Amino acid sequence: MEKLIYLDNAATTKTAPEVVEAMLPYFTEKFGNPSSVYSFASGNKDVITKQRELIAETLGAKANEIYFTAGGSESDNWALKATAEAYQDKGNHIITTKIEHHAILHTAEYLENRGFEVTYLDVDENGSVKLDELRAAIRPTTILISVMFANNEIGTIEPIREIGKIAREHGILFHTDAVQAFGQVPIHVDECCIDMLSASGHKLNGPKGIGFLYIRKGVKIRSFIHGGAQERKRRAGTENVPGIVGLGAAVSRAVRTMEERAAKETELRDYLIGRVMKEIPYTKLNGHGEKRLPNNANFSFRFIEGESLLIKLDMKGICGSSGSACTSGSLDPSHVLLAIGLPHEIAHGSLRLTLNEEITKEDVDYVADSLKEIVAELRSMSPLYEDFIKAEKKA
C-alpha cells in the first residue's frame, strides 16, 4: 500500500519513538523484578515510583492513589466489581449510562446477575447525560455512579464536574472511564470530585497492555487480583516495568504537547467536518458540536452500509472505524448511535474518524475527496437511495 492515512486513533495509537526508547533498557539491561531485594532489581521499584508520581501530578492526585493495571478494561472491571463487593452492606444500586464502553456495560450486566440493581441513564441527541435524570435516579441504596469522561465513538465530553458534585453531595462514589479523554484534555480529580478514574496507555501513544486506576485515598475497595503484595497489596502480579516506564513517558509527552496538539487537531477536525457536511448530502454529524474530543469526527451517511464504506476507504489507504474497535466484529449497529436516537438504518451507515498530530490538511482533503467519491458510488447502487431521490423529485 503506497498511501496510509491512519484515522482510527480512538482504537489505538502509534507508540511514540521516545516512548519505545525509554522502554527498551527495561527489557534487557534493567530486567530485574522490582520485588527482589538486591540493588540490581530493587532500583526498578524507584523507577515505578517516579512514574506513579508523574501520572498523579497530571491529575492533581497523590502518588499512592495510582494503581497500575493491564489497561482500561481491567481498571473499569476493578472499579465496578470491587466497589460493589466492598459497599454492598450500604446498598446494591449502581448508576451508569447507555453509551458506556462495553468494559462498563458488560461488567454492570455481570453485577446485575449477582443481585445488584443498575440504572442505565439515557442521553440527549448529542450524547450528553441529563443531570436532572441523574438526580432522579439516585436512591438511598445507590453506592456508585460511573460515567465516562468522553465517549469513545462520538467524542462527546460529559459534564463530569457537575456529575461529580452531585455524587459528592449524596455521599456516592463517582468513577469515570477516562480512557479516551486522558492525555487529550486536562483532568483534575479534585475539581471534578472524581473518586476513581480509568486510563490506558495505548490511547496516548504509549504501549498496549498497561493502564492505571486512580483510587482516591479513603475509598475502601479491595484487591482485584490476588497473589503477591504488589501495588500496595491491591493488585497482585509482577509489575510490568517496561510498560509502566512507557506509560510514564507517554503521559509526560501527552501533557507537554496537549495544548498545541489539541489546537491543531481541532482545526483539522472542524475543517474535515465542514467539508463533509457541506459537500456530501444526507449526512449527519454525531456527537456534540463543540463539547467533543479535539480529534473526533463521527458521521452517519444515509443509504449506505458502514462496512462497505470502510472497505472502500481501506482500498484508498484510509483507516477508519464504524464504531468501537471492541465491537468491530458485530453486525449490530452501534449502541451509542442508537442511544442518541438514530434509527437502525442510519446508524448502520456510520463512520468514526479520529485524527492525530501527524495528519495534515492535504491528508484531510484526500479523505474528504475520497469520501465524496465512495459515498456517491455506494448510493448509486442503493435501491433505497434511488427511490428516495424519485420521491424527492415528485414532492
Overview of this structure, please?
With 395 residues, this protein is an alpha/beta fold. It has 13 helices and twelve strands. The protein has helices at residues 17-23, 39-59, 72-86, 102-112, 131-137, 160-169, 230-233, 241-279, 306-315, 335-339, 344-347, 361-380, 383-394; strands at residues 5-6, 66-69, 93-97, 117-121, 142-146, 173-177, 196-200, 211-215, 283-286, 296-301, 318-319, 350-354. The strands form three sheets. The protein has a seven-stranded mixed β-sheet with strand order 2-8-7-6-5-3-4, with helices on both faces. Strands 9-10-12 form a three-stranded antiparallel β-sheet. A two-stranded parallel sheet has the order 1-11. Strand 5, helix 6 (160-169) and strand 6 (173-177) form a beta-alpha-beta unit. Helix 3 (72-86) packs parallel to helix 4 (102-112). The radius of gyration is 22 Å and the shape is globular.
Which helices and strands occur, and which strands form pairs?
Blueprint: E1 5-6, H1 17-23, H2 39-59, E2 66-69, H3 72-86, E3 93-97, H4 102-112, E4 117-121, H5 131-137, E5 142-146, H6 160-169, E6 173-177, E7 196-200, E8 211-215, H7 230-233, H8 241-279, E9 283-286, E10 296-301, H9 306-315, E11 318-319, H10 335-339, H11 344-347, E12 350-354, H12 361-380, H13 383-394
Parallel strand pairs: 1-11, 3-4, 3-5, 5-6, 6-7
Antiparallel strand pairs: 2-8, 7-8, 9-10, 10-12
Helix pairs in contact: 1-8, 2-8, 3-4, 8-12, 9-12
